[in-house]
Design goal:
- By secondary structure, the protein is an all-alpha fold.
- Helix content is 54%, strand content 0%.
- It contains twelve helices and no strands.
- The longest helix is centred in the middle third of the chain and has 19 residues.
Length: 234
């Protein structure tokens, strides 16, 4: 890469990285299981400070008991907390789900609103969760800035911002909206499998040649290969 990268060069490099990641992870998708917008909203809220695998494990029991906002708003708190127990912070999460469901019933006729401004007003819902729901449940473009996305966006030299909203806007300017949702999946999958926070597998990275942070982790192919995970977070 040139010492001074032009704005056009940055866009080209960013889109090249995304194309390679798309080829590397053709099955990239939301790793939370869901059947409808309400389920996705709930499991995304629950995924904070735990793993997708744990959330997916409690999902069948949770929605068998409380399949829609009306049922969940009327849930017995103790029973709800018991279901959520394996996720940690179960009392706070139960409180969020009770409030969230009540608002959906009272203000949105039990439907999840397909609008960012409405979603971020819901209890326990921020821009990250809202964009997950918009992109994956409604097909409305959104950039999901979780810890993986933010880390990779900075390592790739796409932005120096650390505030998630500023990262979202900075990266959104590099890609057309139609690419935003899948871009989020590509970076999150790569962050979970190869570009780890502490020891990125640089020597096994398919986009190493375009990455200014190359060398932060082992560059030896054999050593780096040992760091690669075949799945997302356990």
């Amino acid at each position: 890469m040139p010492a001074v990268e032009t704005a056009t060069g940055l866009v080209r490099r960013a889109r090249k990285i995304d194309r390679v990641l798309a080829q590397t992870y053709p099955d990239a998708r939301c790793e939370l299981d869901f059947d409808n917008p309400f389920e996705l909203l709930v499991v995304t809220v629950l995924s904070a400070q735990t793993t997708d695998k744990r959330v997916n494990a409690v999902r069948p029991t949770l929605f068998a008991a409380y399949p829609d906002p009306a049922a969940m708003a009327a849930a017995d708190r103790a029973h709800l907390e018991q279901i959520l127990g394996p996720l940690g912070f179960f009392r706070a999460k139960a409180e969020s789900l009770l409030k969230l469901s009540a608002v959906l019933v009272e203000q949105y006729a039990g439907q999840v609103p397909p609008r960012l401004d409405d979603l971020v007003k819901l209890p326990g819902v921020g821009r990250k969760t809202a964009n997950v729901v918009l992109g994956n449940a409604f097909g409305i473009p959104g950039i999901t800035v979780d810890t993986h996305f933010g880390r990779l966006a900075r390592r790739f030299g796409w932005t120096e911002q650390t505030d998630p909203v500023k990262v979202e806007h900075a990266i959104g300017a590099l890609f057309p909206p139609r690419d935003w949702t899948m871009l989020s999946h590509h970076l999150i999958w790569h962050g979970r499998r190869v570009c780890h926070a502490r020891r990125p597998a640089c020597g096994a990275c398919p986009v190493a040649r375009w990455c200014p942070a190359y060398g932060e982790g082992p560059t030896d192919a054999a050593e780096a290969a040992k760091l690669v995970k075949t799945e997302g977070r356990a």
